[in-house]
Amino acid sequence: MTDIVQHLTQDHQHIDKILTALEKQVDIIEKDDKPDVDLMIEIMDYIRNYVIIFHHPTEDLVFILMLAHDDSARPLVEELFHEHEEEQKRSAALAQVIDKAF
Ligand SMILES: [Fe+2]
C-alpha cells in the first residue's frame, strides 16, 4: 500500500472515530440532555478545516491517478470510495440534526 493510500485509510479510521463521538453527542441532544458543545465544535472544526479542505480533494485526486495508472487498483479505490460515501452520509445526517438543535 502506498504512503498516500495508507494515509487516506488512516484518515478514514480517524473520521469514523470522530463521527462516532459526534453521533453520541447527537444522541444526547435527541434525549433532551446537555451535549458537550466544545467537543462538537472541535469535531466540526476538524471536518471543515481538514476533512473538507484537505482530505476529500486529496482523495479525489488520488483515486483519479490510481485508476489512470493501474486498473488493478480499482478494488482498492472502490473500497476507499465506499468508505468516503459512508462518511459523507453520516456527516450529512449529523449536520441536519445539529442544525435543528442550534
Ligand atoms: Fe475519504
Structural commentary:
The structure is a single chain. With 102 residues, this protein is mainly alpha-helical. The chain has one domain. The chain is 87% helix and 0% strand. It is built from three helices and no strands. Helix 1 packs antiparallel against helix 2, helix 1 packs parallel to helix 3 and helix 2 packs antiparallel against helix 3. The longest helix is centred in the middle third of the chain and has 33 residues. The radius of gyration is 16 Å and the shape is elongated. The mean pLDDT is 90. It binds fe (ii) ion (FE2). Fe (ii) ion binds next to helix 2 and helix 3.
Number of helices: 3
| Largest sheet data | none
**Over the alpha carbons, how many angstroms does the gyration radius reach?**
16 Å
Arithmetic mean pLDDT = 90
User: What's the total number of strands?
Assistant: 0
What is the CA-CA span between the terminal residues? 42 Å
Spell out the blueprint of helices and strands.
Blueprint lengths: L2 H28 L6 H33 L4 H28 L1
Helix pairs in contact: 1-2, 1-3, 2-3
The protein binds fe (ii) ion.
Task: Offer a concise description of the structure.
With 102 residues, this protein is mostly helical. It has helices at residues 3-30, 37-69, 74-101.
